[in-house]
Amino acid sequence: MSTLDTIPKTKQESLVEVLLRLGDDRLIHGHRLSEWAGHGPELEEDLALANVALDMIGHASSLYSYAAKLEGKQDEDHYAYFRDDIDFKNIAMLELPRVDFAFTIAKQFLFSAFSYFLYRDLIDTVEDEQFNGMLQKHFKEIKYHLRHSREWVLRLGDGTEESKKRIQSAFNDLWMYTGELFDQDDTEKAAISHNLYVDVTSFKEEWMKLVKETLEEATLDVPDNDQYMFSGARGGRHTEHLGHLLAEMQFLRRSYPDAEWK
Amino acid sequence: MQVKQPIPKSKLWSWLEEVIDPEIPVLNVVEMGIVRDVVFEGDEVVVKITPTYSGCPAMNAIELEIHKKLRENGVGKFRVVTDFKESWTTDWMTDHAKKKLKEYGIAPPDKTGNEDDFLLGLKSSQKIVPCPYCDSLDTVLQSEFGSTACKSQYYCNECQQPFEHFKCI
Questions:
Q1: Which end of chain A has fewer surrounding CB within 10 Å, N or C?
Q2: A83, part of any domain
Q3: Domain that includes residue B118, residue range
Q4: Whole-angstrom Cα distance, residue A66 to residue A62?
Q5: Residues B121 and B63 placed together within one structural domain of the fold
Q6: Chain A hits for B82, Cβ within 8 Å
Q7: Do A47 and B51 touch (CB under 8 A)?
Q8: Angstrom distances, CA of residue A188 to CA of A66, A69, A170, B117
């Protein structure tokens, strides 16, 4: 279903929408993180970011596979490789270029914290056994990602003059993309009515508290919420960066659709 | 007319025990808890597996190895399916498997629990992981992520040996 179509009507359509929203966030984020392979500031972090990228792409793969089964598509690759930017439902923050290590860590922390609360509540809500099993599995890994990125925020913020400057400006630049985390549209409301999604605004305060406490502990300033907030990416209105990312990610598969690893 | 005897389940399990985890070559996929069940659907053998980590690149290799092993033993009709219903935990690893891990030089996982403590200020680095070589408790976490998704990196201050720890999930 294209993002430009109307909101899902049936329970199954809602389930597919939720699987794709979660999957798109994770695929795009995982792809950006994978760009760090070979470029990490130190060997351990190179491995760590590649590991988190693998987790993210693995989450996307399981979510997409399930959606493919429900929609009768051949496999998960359909969603990753054969859709255009307008059909991707990820939030804009995750498609932004990787910039420097501080920017990636700040983004990783904000998104992991959001995922932590979202998955925690989804596990209590979702009745579908296969979907819930995936959520439980992903949740264990999200905890590692959150801990890892949180510790780096503290280290960079309370580190050298240079590291502090960089992580502070990363949070400042990312802040306008945090509003979208808690935007709720009709698609989400439809999914909530089928017990397939949760009201994201219900944990906004908890998220804010965790972010605020971490930034304060890292001796950083919390950016002002009273500023322009980007919105609309879940509905297909992305930044220019997603198209460039997809061009690179999808090129091989689209040029050689039947190519196989031998 | 010759009636084809169904393959005993114990045989299937013992064949699966010959499939080794490519990233931890001292453990097989049954000990790891990756193979969840083996069932018959008509005359078809269905092997249910579950991934250890979502992004574990070895899963594909493991699936192919299971195919190879069953084919070698003359199993004609089979299918390997990935089941997400229960999510894999290191608690499924047998004590024997943990012992083998330690002998191999990987600090085995202990029981899961209290994982949320870090949000309350308790950090993972405060967890004590004994050194698999000299059993010293004077070890320090170097990185949450090791050479594979399932391991983290530690250093032993006593015998000055870096080692990997199988994360508890």
A1: C
A2: yes
A3: 107-166
A4: 6
A5: no
A6: 62
A7: no
A8: 19, 21, 29, 31
